[in-house]
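Please, structure for the following, as tokens.
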Amino acid sequence: MNWYQVKIGNRLDYAARVMVVMAAFSIPLSTAAMSITSGLLLIFWLLGGNYRTKLRNIMQSSTALWVLVLFTLLGLGLLYTSAGNEEALDTFSQYKKLLLVPIIISLMITRQWRRYAIYGFMLGMLVLLAMSYAKYFDLLPPGPLHQEYTVFKSRIGHGIFMAFFFYLLVHFAISSIRWRWLFIVGAALACYNTLFMITGQTGYVIMACLIMLLFYQSTGWKGVLVGALIAPLLFAGAYFGSNDFNARINESVTDFVGYTPGNYEHYRGISYRLEYYKTTLKVIEKSPVYGFGTGSFANEYKTVADQEKLEPTHNPHNEYLMFASQLGLVGLLAFVAMLFQQWRSSFKIDRESRLILHGLLATMVVGCLFNSLLLDSGEGKFYVILLAILFSLPRQQDNA
């Protein structure tokens, strides 16, 4: 091993691992902090040397390779895109966060570092939760209408993060004896925050799915039946106990039943999504195999929307449709295959990582039905950073 690697490179790799922890901490907080920590992570990783080992670690990780396959397809999509260069490159740039997966995995974070990173994320969530409740009790000024208790993220992102935080806290409450009641109290606060204080409907759906997953993990399919009984009772309590929750559910039902294409005077969240989905499917029908290239969605959607006198959009609010419209069936299958591979590979890692990963995947799979989570900055980095952390444990430690 050369002088640079011993004296400088190894220390920079250590600094890169510190940045992984800091990036996990900043996920639910400041976007600027996330950008800074991610940037420093990349710099330290590049200057840390040891490239052969890092490349070998990437090549041995099916998770890293599948992410690179998807990113490569997005790059190839630039070659035939119908979008202008600026728009195409801007969309491609939004997916560059995928590269954090092989970068973090190549560092081979130890079990101890992985725990630091998970606890860092949970600490960041505690800060978010505390500030949200500070707004709730008028200790901090409230946010805008319908987002009074959000802090750093929109109500969609806040609800998604908080639902997953609830899942993590329940998971640790089950596995911990010494701190069990502390985790239970935290889970209760996160649950109340998601259902009674935040009006993000995606968070509601993810919360329900994660509750079912928790019961399945505890007692198998019998637990799913129990969860199917308890979850509706919990949401019924939220429906009758929270005016905001009640209003959002009633609004969604009304929008769904009364949806009329182009009737924007009465459009709200669900109505817009229904129109986005319907129109995007017409875009996909025009080029179902390869799509129209990376960054093409807005232009191709506008073409169809103009023909039917509908409003244009830059986002279908569905990651599956986003990939299908840009990269066709090839891109959609690659995205779904990547998610499936992560689930399949989860059974090769330790139990704690596997259970957390299943919650992360459930959050992603369900959330992508209603939002373009991988495209979105905060939610996308939430997924790729935690994914890489959970899969970065060295092989010899997997069953330790």
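Residues 289 and 391 are 31 Å apart (CA to CA). The first helix runs from residue 3 to 26.
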